[in-house]
Design a protein that fits this description.
single chain; alpha/beta; about 375 residues; Rossmann fold; binds uridine-diphosphate-N-acetylglucosamine; about 15% strand; 7-stranded parallel sheet
Length: about 375
């Protein structure tokens, strides 16, 4: 009998689910993996399965892209019959993407327990779709595993019983340590060595969906690239925006790459002078690698990367980005330290907790009705 049905759907989920699946297998917990298909390009999905040795999914929903409503609804519609067939004791979701809330919501409404890995992070910015996914997923989760202690206070503020919350550390950093030696050297990915370079990633709707904001960002990055070469693996959303807004000239002078695999990205970050990003995960990975990170957002849901790590919150204004860049080049980049429990053993802590918790789950929770109407 499958005890835990694990869910992954989008690129940032795969490096989180990999160590969880491995730890469940090591501790003898019967698990299955479901891929929603939110991300589907080989470079956004399949390459992570092969690079990270994730077992092929037992179920694939093949939902693809769509508006938030369509994508979330499609995952829900296709997930429910699988859940009914598998009848796990619990559904385990990671992170904050649309697949996370969609599957958590279906499970909760079916009375199946929900486990959320990477719970409690808050940007306090509800214009971010991920923030809505985080708040709602946590509200309907039975067991919440957190990566940093700021999450405890966030969850307490929302009335979540601390008895359901456990600080285990960061499963994404488990994956980073496990694969660091296999990281592809930057010189190989770039087809030749660059003495020093910056890595840039951009994909947040707030940065790439508005033409003026995206043009200003590419403008300042273009300036930076005249001092320090800039390597930019281009997310499909960002590529789409650049084409739609006619901003392709803004890429002149940058080392633009297609989306790169996990081991290539790890090597690019490790060997970089600094990283500029609007990603959540990269703020954490650069902290673990000790590489200065300039975050091109107004807020972060990962404050420990600012307090203890190498991250600086810069925002998206060209003046602020220019000043922060010059500061790092002048030797002002943060050295940082590794946060508590970011030690490569987070997934094992989760599995050990589940060994004690799962046997106490007796079937599904009684619901007043199994049909909405
Ligand atoms: C999603 C997540 C975001 C995460 C990001 C990482 C949500 C709300 N957002 O954003 O939190 O940081 O993934 O990548 O869940 N596309 C492709 N190929 C793919 C996937 C997408 O070409 O394999 C294109 C499509 O045009 C699509 C667009 O990218 O419309 C956006 O994809 P989507 O999954 O909607 O959101 P992301 O921006 O990737």
């Amino acid at each position: 009998m499958t005890q835990v049905l694990c869910v992954a759907g989008a690129r940032p989920n795969f490096m989180k689910i990999a160590p969880v699946m491995a730890a469940l297998a090591d501790t003898g917990i019967a698990a299955q993996l479901l891929h929603t298909g939110q991300h589907y390009d080989a470079a956004m999905s399949d390459s992570f399965f092969s690079d990270l040795g994730i077992p092929p999914p037992d179920h694939h929903l093949e939902v693809g892209s769509g508006s938030h409503a369509v994508q979330t609804a499609e995952v829900m519609r296709r997930f429910e019959p699988v859940l009914d067939r598998v009848q796990p004791r619990a559904v385990l979701v990671v992170g904050d993407v649309n697949s996370t809330i969609a599957c958590a919501l279906v499970a909760a409404k079916r009375g199946v327990r929900v486990i959320h890995v990477e719970a409690g992070l808050r940007s306090y910015d509800r214009s971010m779709p991920e923030e809505i996914n985080r708040v709602l997923t946590d509200q309907i989760s039975d067991l919440l595993f957190i990566t940093e202690k700021s999450a405890l206070a966030n969850l307490a503020r929302e009335g979540i019983d601390p008895a359901r919350v456990e600080f285990v550390g960061n499963v994404m950093i488990d994956t980073l340590y496990r694969n660091l030696e296999r990281a592809v050297p930057a010189s190989r990915t770039l087809g030749g060595a660059l003495p020093e370079y910056a890595v840039l990633t951009l994909h947040r709707p707030s940065n790439v969906d508005d033409p003026a904001t995206l043009a200003a960002l590419l403008g300042v990055v273009g300036e930076i690239s005249r001092t320090l070469p800039v390597v930019m693996p281009l997310h499909p959303r960002t590529r789409g925006s650049i084409e739609k807004f006619g901003l392709s000239d803004g890429l002149d002078g940058l080392h633009v790459l297609p989306p790169v695999g996990y081991l290539e990205m790890l090597g690019l970050m490790r060997d970089a002078r600094l990283v500029l990003t609007d990603s959540g995960g990269i703020q954490e990975e650069t902290t673990a690698l000790g590489v200065p990170c300039l975050t091109l957002r107004e807020n972060t849901e990962r404050p420990i990367t600012l307090d203890e790590g190498t991250n600086t919150l810069v925002g998206a204004s060209p003046d602020a980005i220019r000043a922060a860049f010059e500061d790092v080049m002048g030797g002002g980049g943060k050295a940082g330290r590794i946060p508590e429990y970011w030690d490569g053993r987070a997934a094992m802590r989760i599995a050990h907790t589940l060994q004690g918790w799962l046997p106490a789950v007796k079937g599904v929770r009684a619901l007043s009705a199994t049909r909405a109407a």
